[in-house]
Automatic annotation (TrEMBL):
Keywords: Elongation factor, GTP-binding, Hydrolase, Nucleotide-binding, Protein biosynthesis. GO terms for biological process: positive regulation of translation. It comes from the Bacteria. The keyword GTP-binding applies. InterPro entries: EF-4, G_TR_CS, P-loop_NTPase, Small_GTP-bd, T_Tr_GTP-bd_dom, Transl_B-barrel_sf. This is Elongation factor 4. It comes from candidate division WWE3 bacterium GW2011_GWC1_41_7. One of its GO terms (molecular function) is GTPase activity. NCBIfam families: small_GTP. Gene3D superfamilies: Elongation Factor G (Translational Gtpase), domain 3, P-loop containing nucleotide triphosphate hydrolases, Translation factors. PROSITE patterns: G_TR_1, G_TR_2. CDD domains: LepA (cd01890).
Length: 331
């Protein structure tokens, strides 16, 4: 896949404005997930997310889409809308060149809408404004459209009208994203630099890092040759177990090229050595300069937790360390 054919973008919006439903339509239109396996909020894999009907963890997925015989690779990141999970949004913006901004055509501009727009602008992303839920009887999309023009300065003709539920206008939205979101600008010939924008723990593979390859490429001979990866912020090194992509489940592949989004199963069992916002590079031929990370979340609430039985303290400590790995608001 040519670098010029890659598009990395995220979906940002206030809570319950239809991000996960729109992601479902994207997966359906691009045939990333077969219809028989489709379900509501496909990318929301946590039990709590499905129970509450909200997105808590950001999710990355690779899709393929063809326009006039040209195939494009779309790397989508679905983000949470609830204010309590706003740090997840900042993590996803670091791995994107564009953002689809969704506004509910019946509720209009809300607090997190404004917050997310300014985060995307600060990150230098191309914003595609979208009015969702135009099929609802209570839709006031003409009024909300005027509000978006006045509040954010969008051109009226640039605001797309879609229904994520019925699929109306979603195909046009995908085509617009491909046309307007710039391709990643990394250097394929440079030394490897991969931005770690999310991490989670696997009992068998250790820390799994979701990454965007900013420069160079990561290939399978890294695995076969037992070569090491270095994490520039901590200075730690490890031999990775596998590399791959999210489709949306993990799928092992041979190469992650410049601009692509995927994962590296680091093989690292010490969860404190792989930090979100860090830069991964090759230990034998390392890059000299770290990628600019995003701002660390400052703690506002301090809580002391103790187990009822003192001998359970090691288990509590291990559990909190693993939670902190995938939840950057906990430190």
């Amino acid at each position: 896949m040519l670098q010029s054919s890659i598009r990395n973008f995220c979906i940002i919006a206030h809570i319950d404005h239809g991000k996960s439903t729109l992601a479902d339509r994207f997966l359906e239109i691009t045939n990333t997930v077969e219809k028989r396996f489709m379900k509501s909020q496909t990318l929301d894999s946590m039990d709590l997310e499905r129970e509450k009907g909200i997105t808590i963890k950001l999710k990355a997925v690779r899709m393929r889409y063809e326009i006039d015989g040209d195939e494009y690779q779309l790397n989508l990141i679905d983000t949470p809308g609830h204010v309590d999970f706003s740090y997840e949004v900042s993590r996803s913006l670091a791995a994107c060149e564009g953002a689809v901004l969704i506004v509910d055509a019946s509720q209009g501009i809300q607090a997190q809408t404004v917050s997310n727009v300014y985060k995307a602008l600060d990150a230098g992303l191309k914003i595609i404004p979208v009015l969702n839920k135009i099929d609802l009887p209570g839709s006031e999309w003409e009024k909300i459209e005027e509000d978006m023009v006045k509040t954010f300065g969008f051109n009226k003709e640039d605001i797309l009208k879609v229904s994520a539920k019925t699929g109306e206008g979603v195909d046009e939205l995908l085509r617009t994203a491909i046309a307007k979101v710039p391709a990643p600008a990394g250097d394929p010939q440079a030394k490897v630099r991969a931005l770690i924008f999310d991490t989670f723990y696997d009992e068998y593979l250790g820390v799994v890092a979701a990454v965007k390859i900013e420069d160079g490429s990561v290939e399978a001979d890294l695995i076969h040759g037992r070569k090491k990866i270095r994490y520039m912020a901590t200075g730690a090194e490890s031999v990775p177990e596998s590399i791959g992509i999210f489709v949306p489940q993990r799928k092992t592949i041979d190469t992650l090229r410049t601009g692509e989004v995927g994962f590296i199963a680091t093989g690292q069992k010490d969860i404190r050595t792989v930090k979100v916002g860090d830069t991964a590079t090759l230990a034998e031929d390392p890059a000299t300069e770290q990628l600019p990370g995003y701002k660390e979340v400052k703690p506002f609430v301090f809580v002391s937790i103790f187990p009822i039985e003192n001998d359970k303290f090691p288990q509590l400590r291990d559990a909190l360390e693993k939670l902190a790995l995938s939840d950057s608001s906990l430190s």
